[in-house]
Design a protein that fits this description.
heterodimer, A: mainly alpha, Helix Hairpins, 0% strand, B: 2 domains, 8 helices, flat, translocase (chain A), ubiquinone (chain A), NAD (chain A), mitochondrion inner membrane (chain A), electron transport (chain A)
Amino acid sequence: MFSILTILLMFYFCKNNIITLLISIEMLLLTVTLKFIYLGGYLNDISPTMFALLIIILAGAESAIGLSLLVSYYKLRGRITHIL
Amino acid sequence: MNDIIMKYMCLYIYLLFMKIMNIMSGISSILAMGLLSPVQSMLSLMILFLSTSFCLYLQGFELIGLLYMLMYVGAIAILFTFILSLLNIEYLPKNNIQSTSYLLFIFLIMPLDLSYEADSLIMNLFNINNELITIGDLLYSEYAIIFMLSSIILVMSVVGAMSVIKC
């Protein structure tokens, strides 16, 4: 929760930039997965590790789609900063 | 006696290394967000991934640590760097964050959020022996449908990326 709020606030304060947005989404997924894994180690459970694997796969797919959107946006507008 | 001293020295160095990795991940997560140019923020993102995977490896989650290094540094960061070299962006570092909000960022939980539960090594050391065997069993028995669905998601993402760039 704190990580979600902090990353949204950071993205609001920075000048809006699609690469920064993608990087912040990656860091958000990383933080949430790290919480899952630590909780799994604390409870001696294996299912958060499986969850972490699935989240890694989803993060890869998400970054591929996001970067292709970035390239097509750049071809359309000619810039990627100051999107709002 | 000498053995015990050596053991405590090793434990101390281990904990110190883990603390350093935690602090490094927090600092690089702040640096990756906004205050540098895109190339430098990519570099700090790689440092963040590396330090996180070192932390996970040291705390006993060995398979997940190695997978993080493989996936994030080997695939996603290289993808980001390739896209950065493809586009034509200004590469000069600008001050993207107002300087009054540094203090807010530093105190807003992001370093603490990544360095959660730092000293839990002893608790986790006894169940790491057959993590890979357990995960392989579960992937082929209980999570088989989810495994196939994730592979379909990967294929669809590749096809979607190509179709988005094409038109």
